[in-house]
Write a structure and sequence with these properties.
Blueprint: E1 7-14, H1 18-23, E2 36-39, E3 50-56, H2 58-61, H3 63-69, H4 73-91, E4 96-105, H5 108-117, H6 119-129, E5 132-143, H7 152-158, H8 163-199, E6 202-205, E7 217-228, H9 232-243, E8 250-257
Antiparallel strand pairs: 1-3, 1-4, 2-3, 5-7, 5-8, 6-7
Helix pairs in contact: 7-8, 8-9
Amino acid sequence: MSTPRPLTYVYAVTQPTAPLEAALPAVHGIGRTPLRLLTAAVGDGTVPLAFVASDVPENEFDETGLRRHFEDLHWLENVARTHHDVVQAIAAHAPVLPLRMATVYQDDARARHALTAQQHVFTQRLDQLRAHTEYGVKIYLAPRASAAAPSPAETTTASPASPGKAYLNARKAQHHAREAVHQQAQQAAQAVEAIAARHTTRRVRHAPQRSALAGPQENVLNDAYLVPDGEAEQFRTAIADAARGYPDLRIEITGPWAPYSFAMPPADALQQP
């Protein structure tokens, strides 16, 4: 029986820097494997690019293995966390273009070939992201449980009116309160957009988070912004100041992150050995 060969897992595109090369030995890839830089062949005057890569086992990351493991939430969580940690570590020392989780090539030679073929596109994208960082802004409503309508039994003791009428009145009051909070959320979203127009260069609107991802509160806005590094503190401060004007909402800013939301998907990634 032949020994399974490792595949080449790629985390991100970057431009090698001395600080990155010095820091990379202390960062580990999936399965605690060492990271390496795979550089592309470059033309005259072109800044070199590199994939940040590590070895991964073929039986877990070929097409069959990925299909099987994508049903394993524990495995997915570990891979996603390591992928994120590697990208964040790169971003601290060099410009970074994050790639999609589970971007896998048959070997280093094929990865280098893909990097060389996409060199122009990757260089353009890195130039757009250079000296920028991603921040997220989320708006949450009050917990759904607090907005639940009272039962007829509860309204009987709360009002001298008939139970049916008291219940309808309570439902109407609850509906009006809910509408008022949604109006606040719309106003808050407009305030966030006005701030972003002054301090950011791009926005990606993600779908609101649901269930356990959002916790007990309802997430109604989940945007990502690309912020020039020189504007980051002003952006964060302006969002925090605006949030104080909406006491019935929770407005959360997250980051700094590597620019995941603004990176293009990888092309020509191979999932088969």
